[in-house]
Design goal:
- With 84 residues, this protein is α+β, with helices and mostly antiparallel strands.
- The protein contains 3 helices and 4 strands, in the order E-H-H-E-E-H-E.
- The chain has a 4-stranded antiparallel sheet.
- A hairpin with a 2-residue loop joins strand 2 and strand 3.
- The longest helix has 19 residues.
- The chain is globular and about 35 Å long.
- The two termini are 12 Å apart.
């Protein structure tokens, strides 16, 4: 239970994001508490990345969302965030 957000990237960047997603997701969780995956998850999906906030620790989810957007901006110039 919680919120899910799809961070969609334009079609022309999807292959690049998918190629680097595993490393990027690891970077997103660097320097977060070890239990961060209990509170939020980030998963590669065909449209970009899916962030799931489990509503158990709002500051960890906020930091993860910020880092996810920052990471995506390395590869794309436009991100659309939609509730999944």
């Amino acid at each position: 239970m919680g919120y899910e957000y799809t961070l969609k990237v334009p079609n022309e960047f999807r292959d690049t994001v998918a190629k680097h997603a595993d490393a990027g997701i690891s970077q997103i969780f660097e320097r977060l508490p070890a239990d961060a995956p209990d509170h939020v998850s980030v998963t590669a999906v065909p449209e970009g990345l899916l962030l799931c906030d489990h509503l158990s620790h709002e500051s960890i989810a906020a930091v993860a969302l910020k880092r996810t957007i920052q990471w995506l901006l390395r590869y794309v110039t436009e991100i659309t965030v939609e509730e999944a």
